[in-house]
Structure formats: structure tokens, C-alpha cells
Specification:
This protein is mostly helical. It is built from 6 helices and no strands. The longest helix has 35 residues.
């Protein structure tokens, strides 16, 4: 029972990581420092798809499921859980490349938007007139 619960926790962590890889740039709108965590995660997530690697969380989940008396599965997390939801066929190298490009494209768009907002805020702050020292604003 414990191993099944641990496997489910790994599954949830895996899903959270994937969501963070795809859309974690939105977190950067609130906390700029999150870019230092998100950018390497996004690069790693895209590389997994481009190179055809299997995320280390997948074998960990499989091992925990086997120890808990369940069957593991072949392939990766995306192939086993997400691809059947999105694509009815099998995961091919072409689909992996498309998924990798989607990760890159979504993140380039998000970071473009984030940088644009930062620039607009900076520009507004710079253009706002400041009263001379000792005077209060009107």
C-alpha cells in the first residue's frame, strides 16, 4: 500500500513538473526569481522530447508500482499518460519533436509577454513625474 501511494505521489509530481515546464513562465510574472528555476526546467523538458530521453521520474514510479504489487509500464510518462489523451496513436519521434517545439514555442511566447510587461512597467515608472525633494505629489 505504501509503495502505491508513493507511486501516485511521484505521478502527481511528474504532472506538476510538466505543467511547470510548459507554463511556468507565468509564475515569473509574480516572482522574477522563478525564472532561475523555470528556464532550466523548460530546457530539460524540451530536451527530453527532442533527444527521446525518459524522465527519471518514470522509472521511479514504475519501480514503486512493482514493489506495491502493480504492473509498471513501458515507455515514458508522456507516452503512457498524456499522449493517449492528446493523440490516439502511438508516440513517434515526430510527435516528440512537435511536443518539444510546443514547449519551446509556448515558453518563448510567455517570456516575450513577461519581458514586454516588465518594459512597460519600467517605462511608466520612468515617465511618471516625480516632485522635487521636499514636496509632496499633487
Amino acid at each position: 500500500m505504501l509503495y502505491r501511494v508513493l507511486a501516485d505521489i511521484v505521478l502527481i509530481a511528474h504532472l506538476v513538473f510538466i505543467v511547470f515546464v510548459v507554463a511556468g513562465g507565468l509564475v515569473v510574472l509574480r516572482w522574477r526569481w522563478a525564472a532561475a528555476i523555470h528556464l532550466p526546467a523548460a530546457v530539460y523538458g524540451a530536451l527530453i522530447e527532442f533527444v527521446g530521453w525518459i524522465c527519471p521520474l518514470t522509472p521511479l514510479e514504475n519501480a514503486l508500482r512493482r514493489r506495491g504489487g502493480q504492473d509498471g509500464f513501458e515507455g515514458g510518462f508522456v507516452e503512457h499518460y498524456l499522449v493517449p489523451l492528446i493523440y490516439p496513436g502511438e508516440l513517434t519521434r515526430g510527435v516528440q519533436i512537435v511536443l518539444g517545439l510546443a514547449v519551446v514555442g509556448i515558453n518563448v511566447a510567455i517570456y516575450g509577454w513577461v519581458v514586454s510587461r516588465w518594459r512597460n512597467r519600467h517605462r511608466q515608472t520612468r515617465l511618471t513625474p516625480h516632485p522635487p525633494p521636499g514636496q509632496s505629489p499633487p
